[in-house]
Amino acid sequence: MCARANDHNGAVVALHAVLRVTPDNASAWEALGASYNALGRHSAALKAFDHALQLCDSAGEGVRAYAAAQTGFIQLALGSSTDAIEAYTKALSDGVDRVAALCGLASAHVYYAKGALRWGAPGRAAVSIGDAEDAASRALSAMGERATETAWKLLGDVRSLAARINDPNLAPDMNAMLDVRRVAAKGAVDAYEKALSLKRDGAARWRDVSAALKLHADVLRLCGDVEGARACEAKAFEYALGYVRCDPADPHAWLALAFTNDPNALVASDERKITALSRAVALDPTFADAWTALGRVYLANGEIANATRALDSARIADPSSGAAWTATAASHLARGLVDESRGAFRMAAALGAGVEADVGCALTACAAGCAKDARDAYAAARRAAECAPRDAVAAIALGLCAESRGLFDDARRAMRDAMAFSESVLVEPRGDASVTCALGADARVVRDIARSSLERLDDVIERAADVDILSPGEDIEDAIDRLTTVVDENPDDDASRVALARVSSRSRVHARALAGAEQCPVARATGDHRAQSARALSAAACLLNATPVIHVDNDVVNDDDDGLSTMSLGTRAMRLIARAAMFNPTDAECVRALDIARCRRQGVVIARADADADADAKDDNTQRHRALKAALAAHARGEFADAERFARDVVNDVDCPTSAASAARILLASFLLARAARDGDKSPQKEAGKVLAKIPLDDASSSVIELTRALSSSVAAG
């Protein structure tokens, strides 16, 4: 009764009283959620609806359609499209086509698809928009002749978005992809026209039809149907005029008129566009889209000052407008401000402004040679290439970014695609005066850039292939001499330096192995991760060859260039191996190097290439003896913690023979007693007594017995 009288606060109080008596009343929880929702307390409403749904699930009463649908409505209003889709799907799980739930499900899928398309996931967007069209069509079928203009408008929104998506599943067949988009664009026009026929005085419906026709014209032009595109543009202009006549005070009407071309005009009139857009911003000075469009028109006409003022107004009106930041970047480029343009494109790409922003972000980063932006630029180029798979300019951006990261094969593939795409110059429709349109307008520009890039890439790949690591039958030392000469002649050739480092890692001469590590190029966080891993691994191999046991070899190397300060060779080798594994964690060589380094840290020497060393490494007793020697050497140098660790590793080895275990315990006890004397702490002394007590004296040699008793006496005396 309270809810019917719009007394929702009273309804909440009454329902709480009911729930105190019957806490398992699902209907009361559902009604409580509705009251909370009416009061705008969405979090409380979600909890109440969720409680009602859980009670129904546990009782096996079936789905509470109202609670589930309202949950979806609230989640969508809060911006959580995935939760909204889940809730609406649950509301429809009983097989009944409820119109409200179907429309809500379609809206949630549209919201999700827009986000996926914005952030460069066209495949997910295509799947979601297919589900949205299915839900909207089911809603219209359920309504039948009583279908409202809102339902038809929703179907038009779904199909309009579908016409903008390049489904990657259809990418190998461009004609099939464009055909799907053409059908979707035509379907959007039909749906919007049906909505307009049901409500002729709805100004927004005129805008929808005009925009859909403009989109249909763009898709037809991509398909090569120029006459059909012109016919659609003529109809779009008529509907835009109808929109202005229906509501001349609506700034969106003047924006729609500016985006269409008068079919009776011999050439496109920029003055008419400027007049329409000026009227739009006069009606609404905070209309960022109109300011952005006005700035683009000024920019296309070379009026840089007017364009700058308009775009400044657009960003003031809406600082989060990706389109405004994209146009601002284009204006910076027009003035030759590459750094400012790069920053604006990065902001636009971060806001999900679309293909043009991603392409601009990638191209300006390459033009500026900014290494710190390489990863973001490559990601932007990948998004652009996936969203516009036949765009020659996007392919060029991807090729340049791949080349800057050392992915030469990928770069060459992208440049070949750009050459192929430039034959038909399939450039996605974008705003006037954009950097991509300026580049893609002339196929010769695209082909020249792609051709010069291909020549450069072919030369790089060919030079890398010419570097022979080790010729058949060639001695390792001779190969080092040969590659050293090559590096001296071409000091900037990274491929030759990597080859020298790899061969030097097999040398038995300590100095040559170290020299090879110094010649290896520094592995950076940019570039092909496989190549960077190989660089770090080559340098590490040299150091491992020159370092018998990590923490035992006390040589140091100065190398500030790669971020590794002065440190022992063993520590530097460990750092390089870790870096190689970070760049390529699945590489078998990285795993093997990590295992070698682990054994070295425990004082175990891994075999070198000769058979005698292999036999020693396979002998467990030899490994344990070497570890004990490493413990003694570490203790002599004052590395007491490492000495104790080496000894403990042998003591804790369950397969260790009794003699070796006894020797390790004696060493460990002596180290502990020395620590107790240094620190004045009784704990190590007590531990030493426990270690000595575990030595079996029955079968021990006389020397072991004597040492054990002597140490035990020291423990007792202490």
Shape: flat
- Portion in helices: over 70%
Uncertain ranges:
425-441, 547-566, 604-618
- Termini separation: 88 Å
For the report, how would you describe the main beta sheet? 2 strands, antiparallel
Number of helices: 35
Radius of gyration: 37 Å
Return the structural class.
mainly alpha
Order of strands in the sheet with most strands: 1-2
Taken as a percent bin, the fraction of beta residues is: under 5%
The total of beta strands comes to 2
Q: How confident is the prediction overall: mean pLDDT?
A: 78
Short summary of the structure?
This protein is 73% helix and 1% strand. It is mainly alpha-helical.
Care to describe what's here?
Helices cover 73% and strands 1% of the residues. The chain is mainly α and 718 residues long. The protein has a two-stranded antiparallel ribbon with strand order 1-2. A hairpin with a 4-residue loop joins strand 1 (556-559) and strand 2 (564-568). Helix 16 (322-334) packs antiparallel against helix 17 (338-350). The longest helix is centred in the N-terminal third of the chain and has 25 residues, at 174-198.
Notable traits:
718 residues; mainly alpha; 1% strand; flat
Topology of this structure?
Elements: H1 8-21, H2 26-38, H3 42-59, H4 65-77, H5 81-91, H6 99-118, H7 122-143, H8 149-162, H9 174-198, H10 203-222, H11 226-246, H12 251-258, H13 270-283, H14 288-300, H15 304-317, H16 322-334, H17 338-350, H18 355-368, H19 374-387, H20 392-404, H21 408-422, H22 435-440, H23 443-466, H24 476-489, H25 494-504, H26 510-519, H27 529-546, E1 556-559, E2 564-568, H28 569-583, H29 588-601, H30 611-618, H31 620-636, H32 640-651, H33 658-679, H34 682-693, H35 702-717
Antiparallel strand pairs: 1-2
